[in-house]
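Think of the structure tokens as a kind of shorthand, similar to the way a musician reads notation: each symbol stands for something richer, in this case the local conformation of the backbone. In the example below we present two proteins back to back. Begin with the first one, reading the sequence and then the tokens, and try to describe in your own words what changes along the chain.
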Amino acid sequence: MSAMGHPRFRRKVRRCLRQSALITGILLLCGYIYGTKIEPNWIEVVPIELAIPHLDQAFDQFKIVQISDLHANKYMPESRLARVINLVNQQQPDAIAITGDIVSKRSGFNGEKLQQQLSQLQSKTATLSVLGNHDHSPTIKLLKRTLAASQINNLDNQVYIVKRGEQKLAFAGLDDPYWGKPNLKKILNRLPDQVPAIFLVHEPDYIERSAKTHRFALQLSGHSHGGQIRLPFLTPIFLPFGGRKYFVGLNQVEDTVTYTNRGLGMTGIPMRIGSRPEITVFTLRSAA
């Protein structure tokens, strides 16, 4: 009888297989608990200082808090959204920028409850938003009414000017460039000359078009969730169309700085691994 056919050897193999299956099961369970219960609640507040060309001293240390991809569905409990809003308000922002996917496609939302929470956002000058691909769904009219009732200015191909004395800072917002009705030309026509501008657009890869205008100092985007599930040192397994190249963090294209926020909610597989939910705090500095 060969060694492999010996009963003792077969028992040893079966024992090793059972132990391997048990360890694998434990690891999968731990991964599931971490990805669904721990990391989605482990919100990171990311501070960034940026020098903005032609920004007047009147806007030095102007603070913009960016949030993105709330995906107000069953995977964004009211308690977590309330905590997000508290964290945003704790930063004492001059302006709040919401860069799309406020709700989730194919998931209904309670407009009254969402309005009650979003209306708690506190900024010194304005709370601004743009819509993302998920927002362009059968509930879009309800969403727009909810934003308006929450005192959130949805920049639907619009420009919003913040003034400090005679000095100005412009915010421009583009309707979703792939699922909405974007009109960049309309925005450019409304931007005042010689005024630094911040550009809000949901999909980050749009930077390759917006940067060619040489009109925006900073682009703020979301959409990619930073991959949502990302193994160390590797490109995320899944990245959505429009968010595959500039899928996370700071980049520069021509003379425009772009930032992609990892977002706060989840879609698809409802877990986060290696891509913590994010609130970004930008402190603008005068280049002078």
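Once you have a description of the first chain, move to the second and do the same.
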Amino acid sequence: MSDALVSISNVRKRFGDLEVLKDINLAVGRSEVVCLIGPSGSGKSTLLRCINFLERYDSGDIVVDGKLIGYEDQGGKRRLMNAGVLREMRKGIGMVFQQFNLWPHMTALENVAEPLLRVQRMNSTDALSKAQKMLERVGLEHKAGNYPTALSGGQQQRVAIARALSMDPALMLFDEPTSALDPELVGEVLQVMRDLAAEGMTMVVVTHEMGFAAKAADKVAFLDGGRIVQFAHPQQVLKQSTEPRVQQFLKTYHARNDF
């Protein structure tokens, strides 16, 4: 895929004797939303973490914006990428986790501004101004002065998204961003993600929210046992799949008419 922002080729990953990723091939085009779905333990989160090299992959290539991430070729041998080069690459990749990981002693505004101060070396005035704009982007400008304990789970996750967006990433990774939320708070986070998709943000999302995958994704990848069983348009995977394992997994969702 010539215009792919993320290109994953023949990637394998082991934890000891357990091979959790088995010859993964996947491409994510610019401005595409790709959802990774499948049962727990299928390798979804591991694959996501490999994309920004929070997990080392054992073989294969992961290329982000034209550059191999995590490794460098030196004299025909693969070596770990220089830590400074990796940090620069990661600046273009935002990541939102299941847990919000906000600093409890900082306000929402300060949480968003902190990476701008530490990583981008912005001055305080500019960092706080940009942080305010990022909170506005996720609909939380009125909560700028609140500490995390005074925010709902959905609001905390939206602050975490604003923090990731503050770095102006070309790519956003979401690792089950609604799994730690009460059901009534899920919608507000998914709406922010839908808005980002509509703006053309390239996103890779690990999710169990089949409705979001059906409506917001350009492609859906179903993983099982460390392999991609099917990678196609949401309609083909979620409604028309002939893969028995996909059909089995989705059966309960279809029964509840969730999407």
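Compare your description with these statements about the second chain. The chain has a mean pLDDT of 94.
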